Amino acid sequence: MSEQAKDKPVKMWLGEDGQNPLFQDIARFRAILFDSLLKPHDMTMSQGWVLVHLLREDGLRQSELAERLEVATVTTSKLIDRLEARGYVQRRTDPEDRRSNRVFATPQAREIVKIMVQTVTEVDRVANQGIDTAELEATRGVLNRMRANLRDALANREPKTVPVPGRVFKTKRN
After folding, report:
1. Are residue 94 and residue 21 in the same domain, yes or no?
2. Does residue 174 or residue 129 have the better pLDDT?
3. What is the pLDDT of residues 80-97, one digit of tens each?
């Protein structure tokens, strides 16, 4: 830890306006721009991530996809329903366990993922405008360290109950 960080903590969660959460704003604005650019293709970022995972490892179980996407199984099922209806994926009964399905990308999925890669490149171009390469590389390095720190903290904590007005959720260890 640098001497500066020890002396004066930096409030990373606030943007320059001191009001809005910086990381959430960046993620939200990127998602809005990404989804608006993909709208003519009737594709969302969430649906696209399902296809990306399947193109990396085709034939995943729905539960495995949910785990990789870090969302509930029911959410994954709905995403797959929409993608299947449009011909991007196929569900097939798992030969090892007839109670579960495996999901496979179709050739049509490859084509839309190519468009998604172009879209991500465009979103990056917009977001990174006016920032030099050295700054971007340093920022990526810092953000990767932050992500690793947070993952480690989550992996090393005991499951706890998170209070939410009217509801109680159990967190799980990663």
Report:
1. yes
2. 129
3. 999 999 999 999 998 888
Q: Which residues, in sequence order, are bridge partners of residue 170?
A: 161
- For 48, the domain range is 3-129
Asked if 123 contacts 30 with a C-beta cutoff of 8 angstroms, the reply is yes
pLDDT number for residue 169: 47
Q: Which helix (H) or strand (E) holds 37?
A: helix 22-38
Same structural domain, 36 and 97: yes
Tokens standing for residue 145: 């360290």
First to last CA, the chain: 26
Across 25-39, average pLDDT: 92
Phi and psi torsions of 100, nearest 5°: -120, 160
Q: Kindly tell me if the per-residue pLDDT of 118 is higher than 50.
A: yes
Residue in 31, 30, 11 with CA at minimum distance from that of residue 20 = 11
